[in-house]
Design goal:
The protein is of the alpha+beta class. The protein has 4 helices and 4 strands. A 4-stranded antiparallel sheet has the order 1-2-3-4, with helices on one face.
Length: 152
């Protein structure tokens, strides 16, 4: 009763129980808010870390590069899209550039990789389909008869 008269505790009206300190509520709210903010930050950071190295390039940019490649193939070699068995556009993370992967109908077991530098495509690699090894002589023959300037 003496504490009540001194104003340290205030009764709640229910059997004289003391009221919880308002500062304690603020402290709990502060820690819960901090926990939620940290949890959300960790989640977002984790999602961003998972996405590193998975960027596959903008779809609109891939379409543009494909059209540019077909246009250059036609202008330099007079070859149409009908001469291509398979074409796909990829993104090289190390070089931070797009590349074109092509196999032609007349050489269905050979895959050509092209990169674009200073507005023109150049041959960057030749591999056999499904990563079979091409011997050096066969590779040189393919390079010599190849359609674009080589960067190999």
């Amino acid at each position: 009763m003496r504490l009540l008269l001194q104003g340290r505790f205030k009764p709640t009206g229910r059997g004289g129980k003391k009221q919880a300190m308002p500062n304690m509520h603020k402290l709990i709210l502060y820690f819960v808010s901090l926990f939620v903010i940290v949890s959300i930050s960790v989640y977002v950071a984790n999602q961003n870390i998972k996405n590193i190295g998975t960027y596959e390039g903008e779809e609109s940019e891939k379409i543009k590069i494909r059209q540019d490649f077909l246009r250059e193939l036609y202008s330099k070699e007079n070859l149409t899209e009908a001469s291509i068995k398979n074409i796909s556009i990829g993104y090289d993370h190390k070089a931070s550039e797009y590349f074109v992967k092509v196999s032609y109908r007349d050489e269905p077991n050979v895959v050509y990789f092209y990169s674009k530098k200073v507005g023109n495509f150049y041959l960057s690699d030749i591999v056999a389909d499904e990563q079979k090894v091409i011997d050096l002589r066969a590779r040189n023959e393919l390079l010599n008869k190849h359609r674009f300037e080589t960067g190999i």
